[in-house]
Amino acid sequence: AAGVIQSPRHLIKEKRETATLKCYPIPRHDTVYWYQQGPGQDPQFLISFYEKMQSDKGSIPDRFSAQQFSDYHSELNMSSLELGDSALYFCASSSDEDEAFFGQGTRLTVV
Amino acid sequence: QKEVEQNSGPLSVPEGAIASLNCTYSDRGSQSFFWYRQYSGKSPELIMSIYSNGDKEDGRFTAQLNKASQYVSLLIRDSQPSDSATYLCAVNTLGGYNKLIFGAGTRLAVHP
To answer: Is A52 left (phi over 0), alpha (psi -120 to 50) or beta?
Structure first.
């Protein structure tokens, strides 16, 4: 069965650079979530989209933005990167607020 | 108060024992409850979902929900060393549309 696909799997950026993370949800899933997980921490909700519209926002810094495109894939754009942005970034998708399934994540390292 | 609370552990149980993981949530209107298992450095993996009061069993796993007490638990019977992981409780809140909130996770260690 198709799963949530995230790219890239690993990304190394320097401070103040920009990063773009991509997420391809499970086919026919209408909801995409983005989470940030620091070392030893629980996943922190960043933002979600339902049917290509932003549906909720969590602790997402103003330096970050996201959108969901017509083909339902989503991108998380992160600008002016800081050392503290180093984390695992997970995307998850679900249908009708039901069970959410996660991608493998993108490990972002800011140096 | 966090929206979803779990004891961080570690919870240590011997192989073959029952592991009991607990979670409380603050939004009384929450309707959907999930348990995820996460191995270090990996993505969370859905293992159970529960929507109505009572017990739901799936193999060695049993989820229990008590909406009046705002409490959800996960029992793992015949615990195996491969069950050693962090277990995340997640709740779909009504306060925000399409927002799945996670607890901090309970680290389970099953020792031979």
So the answer is: left
How far off is chain A from B29, nearest CA to CA, in Å?
A: 14
- Residue A101 is given by DSSP the state E
The pLDDT, as a whole number, for residue B101 is: 87
Classify residue A105 as left (phi > 0), alpha (psi -120 to 50) or beta: left
Position B32: which residue type?
Answer: S
Q: Per-residue pLDDT for B96 more than 80? A: no
What are the DSSP calls for chain B, one per residue? --SEEE----EEEETTSPEEEEEEES-TT--EEEEEEE-TTS--EEEEEE-SSEEEEETTEEEEEETTTTEEEEEESS--GGG-EEEEEEEE-SSSTT-EEE---EEEEEE-
pLDDT under 50 in chain A at which residues?
none
Which residues of chain B lie closer than 8 angstroms to A88, CB-CB? 41
For residue B100, which phi and psi values (nearest 5 degrees)? -100, 115
Each residue of A97-111: pLDDT tens digit?
A: 678 999 999 999 999
Q: Tell me how long chain B is.
A: 112
Q: Answer whether B43 sits within 8 Å of A103, measured CB to CB.
A: yes
Does A55 sit within 8 Å of B98, measured CB to CB?
Answer: yes
Per-residue model confidence (pLDDT) at position B3: 87
